[in-house]
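[audit] Reproducing an earlier prediction to check determinism. Same input, same settings, fresh worker. If the tokens differ from the archived copy the diff job will pick it up downstream; this log only records the rerun itself.
[audit] input (205 residues):
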Amino acid sequence: MANVNFLQIGLPALIAVLSLGYLLGSIPFGLILTRMAGHGDLRQIGSGNIGATNVLRTGNKKLAAATLLLDALKATAAAVAAQAVFGANAGLLAGFAAFIGHLFPVWLGFKGGKGVATYIGTLLGVMPLMVAVFAVVWLSIAVITRYSSLSALIATLVIPVVLWITGAEEAAIVTAIMTVVSWWRHKANIERLIAGTESRIGQKG
């Protein structure tokens, strides 16, 4: 697996890459899709989050799936576009910026999602093999525990470790930062997991 030497990117390119990623990442697809479908403001539903999990609380599984896909692909698009214009070194930074944009969108007062979909989308755009690693870890934990949040948390923890072991140190550092931020955004889920009150996959109510 190739290392990602983002330190070689010049300042003008760096600004362009980060701006592109952030603006793409800050598109609130969950909010847009639910409004188009007549469900009103997603921020007034369930947890108030703009991600696919909260979209699912509208009862529309197709809408939730579309949100998950689009939230992932906006990070992928940022990474792929940055690589095409500025070279391979720019992709990870663009994906990282898209991840930050999703969590802290300027259009919504910097109150966004939790970043799992854009995390995956970043991996897809820069290092697709890591998507398979993420999926295997997520599915394994989900089968054992039936906790979606725990599955995502552990998967994001595994990715930077695997990257570091395989020699992609800079990519490991960037994804580790993404993992820390994602865990912070999941703090309520973590509290419920510790208390034993977190909802399991397939659980109603």
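[audit] rerun output stored. Observation attached for the diff report: Residues 103 and 109 are 11 Å apart (CA to CA).
[audit] end
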